[in-house]
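Recap for those who missed Tuesday's class. We walked through two folding examples back to back. For each one, the amino acid string is listed first and its predicted structure tokens come directly after. Nothing is annotated here on purpose, so try labeling regions yourself before you check the end of the notes.
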Amino acid sequence: MRRIIALFLIFFILTGLAGCEPLRKKFTRKKKEPVKMPRIYQVKKYEKKPTPELYKQHYVYWMTWHSELLKVLGRNHKKDVKCMEEIVGNLKDMQNMLLEEKADQLEPHIQRLVKVQDIITKEDLSTGNKDYVRMTLEREDRFVKREFHYKKVKDHLKKSFGDEDAAGAAPQTGK
């Protein structure tokens, strides 16, 4: 009988020491999460106009990515793809800032670079393709630097991005 009483006593002491965590959790207060205030954004019309500074910025970006690609062509596929994306993107941005006549002169060169981008993207840089890509990049580099330098096209910039007509001309006054 003493053994049974000793076992019960030991059992009750152990359960008392271990506690009853789920029961204790039921009756304790839970911390309230702070209510997050929703962010309110005020939308306002943002208009960016083509300026010589903006054109110069895209020209410098294009020139930097172009020279970078010529330095590392064929060493790292991801770097080559990124450089080509940036080159074509910056040329298209430059084209969007130019009047239609001048922008049309840039279009065939962008298309040649898009073909080069396709070659690079498909990881098809064999020796022959690598030479073709390098020669095309060097030729387009010379042409864009000669014909689309920001000092030469400052008179051919649009007044706004929506303009399709001769925005470089003086505004018409009176009817």
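Example two. Treat it independently of the first, because the proteins are unrelated.
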Amino acid sequence: MSVGTGGLQYFRTEIRLAGSGGQGLILAGLVLAEAAGLYDGLEVAMAQSYGPEARGGTSKAEVIISNSPIDYPLCRKVDILLAMTQEACDSYCSDLRPGAVVLTDSGLVSHPPNGRAMGFPFTDTARQELGKVMVANVVALGAIAQLTGIVTLGGLEAALLSRAPSGTHELNKKALVMGVALAKLKSDTEPRSPEDEALDSEQDLG
């Protein structure tokens, strides 16, 4: 975040959603971008790429969210990373910003990129609680929104339901709620790191 003239604060947040070609990460990126741009009134840019196979290979969506015009639409230093497979985690974690928020699927990622990565049972929750593995991406979006506040939950739900196929609205709403609940549980039970304590102290003094 940088500060402009008159004390106006600008932000640019770089988000990467990475996994396999069958996990719906491109769709998740579109939903996130539309939540920020159409419903929260922010500036948005999105890019996407696939590995050598459309299904089974790695894929990623990159979403840039800012409150000012975006001059470069690709990630330079990732602020928020979602890694839904180990292969995606290994391929797309080399350019994380120090202190980046990293979320992984704990059932599919055994070696996270750093000690502060947070593991969540996104796929297991979608399978066991909802009976549909395909909404694991929505569970992950709920967790991202709750943990980071980068989009409002209302905007995220509106964007999600605008793209959800007919007959799946309740399923997707439940998936989003479960993602939020997972993030709240993690926040309530996760021990705070020395870095977090130091950051809070700096903010209190500032």
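Answers for example two:
The radius of gyration is 17 Å.
The longest strand covers residues 96-105.
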